[in-house]
Amino acid sequence: MPDPRVAFFPDSFHEVNGVAHTARQFTAWAARTGRPFLCVRAGANRGYRAEANLQTLELPRGPLSFALDADLRYDLLFARHLRRITAAVRQFRPDVIHITGPSELGKIGAVLAHQLRVPLAASWHTNVHEYAARRSAWMLGALPPAARATATARIERAAFRAAARFYGRARVLFAPNAALCATLAQATGRPCFPMARGIDARLFSPARRTAPEPYGSHRWTLGYVGRLSVEKNVALLPRVAAALRSRGFTDLRFLVVGQGAEEQSLRLALPNGTFPGVLRGDRLAQAYSNMDCFLFPSHTDTFGNVVLEALASGVPAIVTPDGGPAHLVRASNGAGVVAEDEAFADCIAAMIADPAEHASMRRRARSYAEAASWDAVFEGVYAAYEAIVP
Fold it and tell me: What value, to the nearest 5°, has the Cα angle with vertex 45 and ends 111 and 67?
């Protein structure tokens, strides 16, 4: 069958997060492979553009929008653009409308799919229910611990039920890992297909390393990349530093890349840390390659782009058992460690004590990441479209 005409409504596109990164890669892949593709997104470069098979409609969020993260906003009045979006979608004549979540863009995409009788596809990229629970913790601080835990669990369950109802409007779903696919399929009654993430193994590479090799008298660098926010569990980093100091590891440094509400507290708690802010491109790739171990303490991520980028850079990763990063590290056959929060320091100490095993982990990390291809990811998405395109 001919390639379906896809109208894509990503929650985030220009920002620094996994959804935006995937959306940019998806749009670029569609353009590169000649697929008819319309990307409707929020951004400052307002207007409609058409180039060969790729069309884009970018519209601004307004001054009354509010912040969800350091660089991501939600515009309650974004529907003011509905007439223009509707005209562009009608003109494009999509076979599929694909949304990435319950944002203002996702809701408009879902409404248009219903009105125009176009099959709706939806990607689950963010565990919004877990984010809601963790971000509500500050409101529940006055409650006793048991009551606080009960209230947090109720908030998480209610948020998941609401998200599942929204995603249930789609004919087909995508999620970053098999476990999440199974959960969504059961909750919505819709088929769910894996939509992992790819990597640019030429950009993220051990060849970019400028630091000495991590053996002998080299000062080890422990790294983190991502939002510095409560749902990422970044408060674990100072606890790891303290546990390592108590074991006599006093010559370690932290390289913390990103921005967010927890940055100031981390700066105070990690006086030997380096905080370069948000990095992109070559600077980000070099930062990864100069790390000796990558720490990703999040319990809420559905995939963990940054973990894959670290592995591609030849950096072993330590991740928690929850969410997508654990699937990455387990699948990498020894390129990292899955550990509970309290065991992160022990895992780092073991790596430092065994240079030969650490060197082997670095090679395995690179080998695993080299096989992760964006082309394969998006070919799989288009294969799943065939189930819903008339």
Answer: 65
